[in-house]
Specification:
mainly beta; Lipocalin
């Protein structure tokens, strides 16, 4: 008697009916404010479902000076939910600004696709929005 073992790779599973297609959102996304870097977001489908991290930049607009930005610390994205053209996720805010944000709740975001490699990222708690592009 011959036994065959079949291993299902993520690439094969993606081709099965009903398997989620994350191709529209996976990759590295970047956003700018006034020409300066504002965020870098990486989304992956390695493992089960989606995972990712986001790095925000501190953007400074000093009078009479060009806009400057400096990177913060990358934060993992969690509670990621993708449906249609929308990707919702949360990011911890507790380490963002030292002691004053230590007990803050997570921050909610929605990425809305609006074309090939283009999207809007909206902060759901204060309605701030930024255009982002996949690199």
């Amino acid at each position: 008697m011959t036994r065959r073992i079949f291993a299902m790779t993520p690439a094969l599973a993606a081709g099965l009916p009903g398997a989620p297609d994350y191709s529209a959102v996976i990759g590295v996304w970047r956003g700018h404010l006034d020409g300066a870097p504002a965020l870098v977001m990486t989304i992956s489908d390695e493992g089960e479902g989606l995972s990712g991290a986001i790095l925000f930049y501190m953007v400074r607009r000093d009078p009479g000076q060009p806009v400057k930005s400096s990177p913060g610390i990358p934060e993992p994205m969690f509670r990621i939910a993708y449906e249609g053209t929308k990707l919702d996720f949360q990011v911890s805010h507790s380490r963002s600004h030292g002691e004053r944000t230590r007990f803050d709740p997570p921050v909610r975001f929605r990425m809305s696709l609006n074309g090939a490699g283009k999207a809007k990222l909206k902060h759901l708690d204060d309605d701030m929005e930024i255009a982002i592009e996949r690199m």
